[in-house]
Amino acid sequence: MKRKHLFTAIIFSLLSLLVACSSTEQKQTEELKAYITKEIEIAVPKAKFDTEESFDQLLSTTYNGKKSSLLVSSVIKKNSISVTGLTPGYLKLFTITYDENGINAEYSVPKAMLPPINQVLLDIMLSYKSNLNNDLPKEFRIIDKGNERTISYVDITKMRKVIYKIEYKSMNGKRLPNKIINFEFNYTINFKYV
Q: Full-prediction pTM beyond 0.90?
């Protein structure tokens, strides 16, 4: 019986902590920039999509040999994307909505525990948008071939350096990202649709 009360107290404390840490952040679109390389910061592509869809995913990341996982629920509309991060027990960690007005972010955990929103949105936009040709500076090349997209940087000496490799799979007649490899910042994201 004591164990049951202890478990209830722990759950209540965690929920109280989540509520106490709740915060909201809004950023205007003109402030929305992220680093595509260690030296180059670019504007995050606008939230404009060809299709509307929603899906749940288990994201598994590997960064410098360390692995972590996160449940994510995403809703893509023509002019917006909303991403909600969840614990394995389906407690909400954060919700990010990105549209023509900028970002609206709600946190249920301290912001410092999460990766920078702008960098997360850059990965999302680079992997989900079907046409990026007008979104990246001219030094970057996008090659879509079959179920793979590469994004490269070409410097003034014409040397080509692959920054991103994004693998896709077909699901219900749609092309959805399956894996993101970022060579510049040394991380990998695997997508499992649930």
A: no
Which of 20-24, 76-80, 163-167 is predicted least confidently?
20-24
Q: Which two tokens stand for residue 7?
A: 């478990």
Sign of CA dihedral 93, 97, 98, 103: negative
Q: Are 183 and 163 in contact (CB under 8 A)?
A: yes
Angstrom CA distances, 101 to 48, 49, 116, stand at 12, 16, 19
Element (H, E) at 118: helix 117-128
**Residues forming a β-bridge with 190:** 60, 179
48-66 pLDDT tens trace: 998 899 999 999 998 878 8
- Residue 115, Cβ density class (10 Å: 0-12 exposed, 13-18 middle, ≥19 buried): exposed
Model confidence over 104-122: pLDDT tens digits? 999 988 877 777 888 999 9
The answer to whether residues 75 and 59 touch, using CB atoms and an 8 Å cutoff, is no
Q: Please report where in the chains the tokens 């840490």 appear, as a residue.
A: 21
Task: Give exposure, 4-40, as e/b (b: 16+ Cβ within 10 Å).
Answer: eeeeeeeeeeeeeebeeeeeeeeeeeeebebebeeee
